[in-house]
User: Which sequence fits this backbone?
């Protein structure tokens, strides 16, 4: 792809969870394989999250952090509190203004050919206020919510509107939005949105699934560890390996012989998933896709008050990923295991990803090159 080869990309990544970061690493590797350069990865973070070590280890470019909006959870670290989140983020506008100035300085320093935003709202606002000429493409599962064919599982107008507005803020001025999806979607209606397979980590494809005797648990919000422990006390014979971003967990923390907590570790997590009987997780897009690819059924428990995860769980259920619940009733997954059927179409969909994404990025760069050449030839 001649336009991608030799081109320079600047990444801006939302730091909530690990999904957007693993997507960024996957695209980074695809671009480098095509002879492109990722000059820097800018990560939006907050005081409640730390940037996982795997990002620093796998990034082929400098990683820099900036303060970005985030959600506030309750005291137990479980449910999301919408009004306090909005209030706190409004009070921090001066901080976010400083972050946008930092993004502007990085764009001027690197002079990239394209900016790729992985769902951070400040990237869209930066585009709005700075009127810069570098094309920006946006990649996230959430852009599927702007597609008229997507069926929301609830008629809650307020939540749907809030989710669409937030998603719009992340993509202001974008020339293309890649809607990562569990399944192919019709994108003929609007050229700015492209239905795209999940951007899964390259190392995932190296693992051969096996039938282990344990369940894998992935927790974004550490407060849910209490729910896992409560279920475990009543079912001590079921082996659980639980990955969490709780800062108190360093490496491994054995609760007892059949429950072990692990700090986030990219390689170890995939190793455990490949051998697990199934996945228990909040309804993040990335981890559910990885489970689907490896043929592992999922029990999805959306974070309380997180309408986006509520939508994810229903959409993934429709795609055959597994089942969902509103609490960590892990026994439901055990009951479901004999009925689970792996989707072979999902694997084929995933394998189409690189050609779709790289082809679209190449077209953007080609259009930019043509626009630069026109005045010179006039």
Assistant:
């Amino acid at each position: 792809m001649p336009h991608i080869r030799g081109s320079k990309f600047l990444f801006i990544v939302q730091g909530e969870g690990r999904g957007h970061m693993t997507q960024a690493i996957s695209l980074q590797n695809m671009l480098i394989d095509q002879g492109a350069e990722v000059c820097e990865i800018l990560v939006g973070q907050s005081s409640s999250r730390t940037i996982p070590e795997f990002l620093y280890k796998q990034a082929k470019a400098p990683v820099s952090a900036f303060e970005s909006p985030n959600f506030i959870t309750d005291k137990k670290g479980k449910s999301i509190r919408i009004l306090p989140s909005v209030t706190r983020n409004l009070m921090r506008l001066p901080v976010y203004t400083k972050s946008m100035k930092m993004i502007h300085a990085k764009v001027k320093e690197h002079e990239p050919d394209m900016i790729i935003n992985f769902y951070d709202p400040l990237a869209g606002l930066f585009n709005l206020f700075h009127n810069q000429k570098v094309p920006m493409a946006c990649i996230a599962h959430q852009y599927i919510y702007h597609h008229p064919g997507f069926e929301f599982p609830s008629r809650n107008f307020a939540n749907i509107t809030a989710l669409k507005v937030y998603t719009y803020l992340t993509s202001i001025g974008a020339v293309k939005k890649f809607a990562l999806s569990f399944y192919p979607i019709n994108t003929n209606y609007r050229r700015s949105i492209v239905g795209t397979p999940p951007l899964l980590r390259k190392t995932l494809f190296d693992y051969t699934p096996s039938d282990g005797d344990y369940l894998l648990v992935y927790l974004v919000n550490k407060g849910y560890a209490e729910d896992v422990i409560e279920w475990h006390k009543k079912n001590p014979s079921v082996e659980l390996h639980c990955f969490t971003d709780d800062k108190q967990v360093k490496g491994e923390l054995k609760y007892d012989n059949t429950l072990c907590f692990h700090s986030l570790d990219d390689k170890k997590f995939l190793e455990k998933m490949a051998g697990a009987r199934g996945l228990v997780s909040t309804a993040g897009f990335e981890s559910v896709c990885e489970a689907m690819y490896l043929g592992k059924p999922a029990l999805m428990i959306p974070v309380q008050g997180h309408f986006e995860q509520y939508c994810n769980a229903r959409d993934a259920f429709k795609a055959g990923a597994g089942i969902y619940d509103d609490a960590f009733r892990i026994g439901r997954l055990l009951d479901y295991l004999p009925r689970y059927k792996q989707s072979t179409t999902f694997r084929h969909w995933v394998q189409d990803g690189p050609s779709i994404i790289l082809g679209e990025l190449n077209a953007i760069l080609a259009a930019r090159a043509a626009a630069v050449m026109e005045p010179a030839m006039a």
Notes: Residues 353-377 form the longest helix (25 residues). DSSP finds 13 helices and 16 strands in the chain. The longest strand covers residues 37-45. The mean pLDDT is 88.
